[in-house]
Each structure stands twice: as structure tokens, then as C-alpha cells.
Amino acid sequence: xxxxxxxxxxxxxxxxxxxxxxxxxxxxxxxxxxxxxxxxxxxxxxxxxxxxxxxxxxxxxxxxxxxxxxxxxxxxxxxxxxxxxxxxxxxxxxxxxxxxxxxxxxxxxxxxxxxxxxxxxxxxxxxxxxxxxxxxxxxxxxxxxxxxxxxxxxxxxxxxxxxxxxxxxxxxxxxxxxxxxxxxxxxxxxxxxxxxxxxxxxxxxxxxxxxxxxxxxxxxxxxxxxxxxxxxxxxxxxxxxxxxxxxxxxxxxxxxxxxxxxxxxxxxxxxxxxxxxxxxxxxxxxxxxxxxxxxxxxxxxxxxxxxxxxxxxxxxxxxxxxxxxxxxxxxxxxxx
Length: 336
What we know:
Layout: E1 41-53, H1 59-87, H2 99-102, E2 106-122, E3 125-138, H3 142-150, E4 161-165, E5 170-172, E6 176-184, E7 189-196, E8 202-206, E9 211-219, E10 226-236, E11 241-251, E12 259-267, E13 271-274, E14 277-282, E15 285-291, E16 293-300, E17 309-316, E18 321-327, E19 330-335
């Protein structure tokens, strides 16, 4: 006599690893060309014989347990077959993986109702044969988990560092904005890109080496008034990224608004550079109009080796005159 037992659906979890090649910030959902024919899920037909020792157990309970255990065994066989099919492929990364590592990240489910036959008693054992279709699906965590398992030894995961300096909080419409960008990496830099959103400003540098500094500028002539966001994206040779961001505001050029005056007196006389830009002026210089904020002043006395280059930072205040006095290597700043 055969007993009809409700058949529960059993889920097991496994991992498959053939997406390891696209562990990058640029292509995390793209299969390598060699594996595009491998489905993300697959139905596998399973047939197996199962025997349960029922000694010292109630026969009804033992037979019911035998059906349930047979279903679990069928799901395991289906998911193992799925993993074995891929591990048999000619792929060098498979040497780093085993079936035990990939099992926890696959899901196997019985599709439809399994068929049982030869389910009968023999001495103290209950024997049966099960035929079933097992659907195997890959986990949502496939890419991240595979990257951890298959990541090459010594792979560089340390992101680069960097910064943008000299860009102030506000400028007058039409100003030229000078800036300095710096990048460093523990191994090798690849490139960095500076851009200002909602403008045509975008500049990319290809880099060789561990450290780099660039000075550059852009004009805001004919730009609209308002706030602008700028960013610097740094990439190293291993694909690690570092982003730096900031904002500045363009205001209307109203006489006396958000401006101050700078006077410079220097002994010996020197050529004046402001934020890295040659002003074409030499000291003494008075009445230099600047938007409020901090500036790096460099004084270059080409004919005097002892005091060839001197630097100072000044803070320009609205409607005020700032006096910068440099004698030898001593610097004094006075705000009227």
C-alpha cells in the first residue's frame, strides 16, 4: 500500500562563481563573453534511489521521513550537478573554488510534484526511487561574494587620496578661478578628472606615478549667477576611486560689494603672483582689487638669490584695505 504524503518545497543555498571577472565599479552586471551562454537559473532532471533505516521507529513516521529526506537529497543532487557542470569548464579561477565554497549561494527548488516508485519495505528499511525537476537559481549576492573568494592575492584595494585647493566660496561673475589639485596613491595613479557641473569646464589628466600636483584655472565670463558644484575624480591603476567635491557662488559685480583692496610693499622688490597667476605687477603695488577671501601671494625677486621667492597668505575683507609688508623673510599683514 502506498501512502500519499504532502510534498513540501525545500530550499537550499549555494553560490556560483562565474561572474568573478566583472568585479569592478564599471561593469557589475555584465557577464564575460565566455560565459554569456550560462543561464542564471536552470532546471535539472534528477533521478535517485533512497533508503532509510527504520529500525526502532514507528513505520508510519519512518516512511514519511523517508519521503522528505529523499526530496532534500534530490535538491542537493540537482544543485551539485549545476555546480559540477560549471566547475568542469576550462576556467583557471575554478582552482580557487570548491563545491563547498559555492554551495551556500545557490537556491534549489523542486518544480511541480516529484514522482515516487518502488516505495516499499525490505526488512527494517524503507526504499524508494524519486524522479524530480530541480530549479537552481543564483544568489543576489553573487558578485560581491565571488569577488571576495576569487580576488587575486595582493590585489590593491586601497583608494587614492587627493584634494582641491584655492577655490574660494564666492567670486564675482566673470572672474577667473584658479585652483590646485593633488593626488597620491600607494601604488600607481591612472588619471584624474576635474569638472564643474552645469558648465563646459571638464579637464582630464592621464598620470604615471604615485603623486601629482597640477595648477589650472577657468573663466566664468558669461556664466549665470548662482551656485556651482565642482568635483575631482581620482582613479588608480587598480581601479580604486577617490572623489573630492565643493561649491562656489557667482555674484553680481556691484561696485564695492564683496571686494577689498590689497597693497603690497616688498624689499627687495619682487614680481607678484596671486594664487599661482602672474599679475604682471611688481612691488610696490597698491590698489589691487580682489574678491573677499583668502589668497596665496608669491613674491619672486629674480635678481636676488637670497630672497628669490617668498610666500604669504592674505585675507581680503569687504571694503577694507589689506597691507602686506615683506622685508627680507619677515612678513606683516595689516587690515585697515
